[in-house]
Write a structure and sequence with these properties.
The protein has 222 residues and is an alpha/beta fold. Helices cover 31% and strands 17% of the residues. The protein contains 8 helices and 9 strands. The strands form 3 sheets. Strands 4-5-3-6-7 form a 5-stranded mixed β-sheet. A hairpin with a 4-residue loop joins strand 6 and strand 7 (195-198). Helix 4 (91-100) packs across helix 6 (118-132) and helix 4 packs across helix 7 (150-163). The longest helix is centred in the middle third of the chain and has 15 residues, at 118-132.
């Protein structure tokens, strides 16, 4: 199954600069180019699911695909002096959501956002999105685990999956194939070819995903 659509080629005009640059690299110019067509995820999201993964290398259309769902949020605003814990409505919600985002250290919870590392800031922002997310909507997470090491990424995947309720719906976009095995998603979309792999707790298909010259092999639902 492929989620790529069919679009007509777009005419393009090449001026002097473009022609000279193309000649330098022995590049053959074309009178038209194929438009970039973002993958449409709605056909998958209309079916019951808890976790979906959009996987592929940088520049393959992951962000555009989840943006079509209309749920990508901007970076939340943080106080320069307040602790990150004080940005949540209650202590219980702060503890639950920060833990779900893999930020389990109480000393880190007591720091202002600006004093956290890049990876900790990423997890703190994710925790706030979890705290304010409405169950009836799809939570879309772009660049999932991109700024954390893989040990932290594994813990984040496990914590996030444990936090999600049976009625939650989350779609993450990532260039890291390892999150697929850790999240155990219901489906995976490969943005290189628009193909879909399905998994879940009862269906356990094998998958193979290419990342450059490295091949990651795993089992969905394992």
């Amino acid at each position: 199954m492929s989620l790529f659509g069919n679009s007509e080629a777009t005419p393009v005009r090449h001026g002097l600069v473009a022609r000279e640059l193309a000649a330098r690299f022995d590049f053959t110019l074309s009178e038209s180019v194929e438009p970039f067509e973002p993958i449409d995820l709605w056909s998958l999201c209309e079916q019951p699911f808890r976790i979906g993964v959009v996987y592929g290398p940088s520049g393959s259309g992951k962000t555009q695909a989840i943006a079509r769902l209309g749920q990508i949020s901007e970076q939340p605003v943080w106080s320069e002096t307040d602790s990150i814990a004080d940005h949540f409505p209650t202590a219980d919600i702060a503890h639950e959501c920060l833990s779900a985002a893999g930020l389990n250290s109480v000393p880190q919870m007591m720091k202002p956002y600006r004093l956290l590392s890049n990876g900790e800031q990423y997890r703190a922002s994710l925790a706030r999105r979890l705290a304010w997310h409405k169950p009836e909507t799809i939570l879309c997470i772009d660049e999932f685990t991109s700024v954390v090491d893989r040990t932290v990424a594994h813990g984040l995947c496990v914590s996030l999956r444990r936090h999600l309720s049976p009625h939650s719906r989350v779609v993450v976009a990532s260039c890291h194939a390892d999150v697929i095995a850790w999240l155990r998603p219901d489906w995976v979309v490969n943005t290189l070819d628009g193909s879909v792999s399905r998994g879940g707790s009862e269906v356990v298909p094998r998958w193979r995903l290419m990342l450059g010259e490295k091949i990651a092999v795993g089992i969905l639902g394992e």
